[in-house]
Design goal:
With 348 residues, this protein is α/β, with parallel strands linked by helices. It has helices at residues 136-148, 166-177, 189-197, 213-219, 238-245, 277-281, 298-311, 327-333; strands at residues 5-13, 27-35, 43-53, 80-90, 100-107, 111-115, 120-121, 157-160, 181-186, 203-206, 229-234, 248-256, 285-288, 318-322, 342-346.
Length: 348
């Protein structure tokens, strides 16, 4: 590019939101100038193409150190997530102008400066749409099903909460590829229909219609799991986790991927789980995990998922929102029953 300075709009943390969904009081957009010829060595300037809007971002905006997820965003810091960008300036010989890369710390901005050490090149003509490379939900599903629940056996009984979420959609399909029976919970009748017809779930139920999750699991899940649940991928926590623990098998595995029921609440207001004694009696393995701890396996995951996508064994549901200015609204949509699958901001 001929210009040495470019203007970029970016979202930053203006104030913390300890509870509730963040608003324009907490997240604001500003315009900054980036000097292209002043970037450090081993860094590149990215023109942001796509950024993934993830529920875990909410946990970085509370201003509270609760041991959840990643460190808090600093006040005035630019908000970042997994993204795809085009290199427009490089001070690393391994990356040249025009390279398409995935970056785990892409700013919600039109342009950003990032370390080249965290990038991975992608082939734009590989037959996979670029938003598919925003692999945090897929990686979270893969870790929960294929790593935490290892060894997963054909015929295992798998239950997944938030089954129409980005993680839930991938997780259900991965479990089906392993020959498992899969049942999920989700928030609308349309989502129940969707995950059964498009994503291979054996059955599902709308938790909003259930007054008693324990009774719902007894009635619906046991049609397919007469011997109980072998693997539970938890995206919800609270009452749903408690209900599942009443129906797990001996030596069951519980992968704690997220607990979205408590993200917008102070920890003192979240629902506790009263039947943890079941973990002892049934010798259940329950493990929480952070996807950043498994980035060393990203290459293995990506190769496997690329193959599944090309062969049509895995399909995704991606909502593309155009324009960086729509980040705040897109983040809020994750905590409503209207959201299905993955939400991605298309910046360019």
């Amino acid at each position: 590019m001929s210009a040495t300075v470019i203007e970029s709009r970016e979202w930053y943390m203006a104030a913390y939101a300890p509870e509730g969904i963040p608003t324009s009081d907490h997240l604001k957009i500003r315009c900054v100038s980036l000097a292209l010829d002043a970037i450090p060595e081993q860094h590149v300037v990215l023109e942001t193409l796509f950024v993934s809007v993830e529920p875990y971002l909410r946990g970085r905006m509370t201003g509270l150190e609760e041991g959840l997820y990643f460190a808090q965003f600093n006040l005035t810091e630019v908000v970042s997530a997994f993204g795809v960008g085009r290199v427009i300036m490089s001070k690393d010989s391994d990356y040249g102008e025009g390279d398409i890369v995935i970056c785990p710390s892409t700013s919600f901005a039109e342009y950003c400066v990032v370390s080249s050490q965290i990038l991975r090149k992608v082939e734009p003509n590989a037959g996979i749409p670029l938003p598919e490379y925003l692999g945090i939900p897929g990686l979270a599903a893969w870790v929960g099903i294929e790593v935490i629940a290892e060894p997963i056996k054909a015929g295992s009984n798998v239950f997944i909460s938030a089954a129409a979420s980005a993680v839930g959609i991938y997780a259900g399909q991965l479990a089906k590829l392993k020959g498992c029976r899969v049942v999920g919970s989700t928030g609308t009748d349309d989502k129940v229909k969707l995950i059964k017809e498009e994503f291979g779930y054996d059955d599902a139920f709308n938790y909003h219609k259930e007054k008693d999750f324990d009774a719902a699991l007894t009635r619906i899940v046991y049609r397919y799991f007469p011997n109980g649940i072998d693997i539970y991928l938890d995206n919800v926590g609270g009452k749903m986790l408690e209900a599942v623990l009443n129906h797990v098998n001996k030596h069951a595995k519980v992968s704690l991927c997220g607990m979205i029921s408590g993200y917008n609440k102070l920890w003192t207001e979240r629902e506790g789980v009263r039947n943890l004694l079941n973990l002892i009696g049934k010798q259940v393995k329950m493990q929480g995990y952070m996807v950043d701890s498994y980035f060393d396996r990203f290459g293995v995951f990506a190769k496997e998922m690329e193959s599944h996508l090309k062969e049509g064994k895995i399909v995704s549901k991606i909502k593309i929102v155009h324009g960086i200015e729509n980040f705040l609204e897109s983040l809020g949509s994750l905590f409503t029953s209207s959201n299905i699958g993955k939400v991605v901001i298309q910046v360019k």
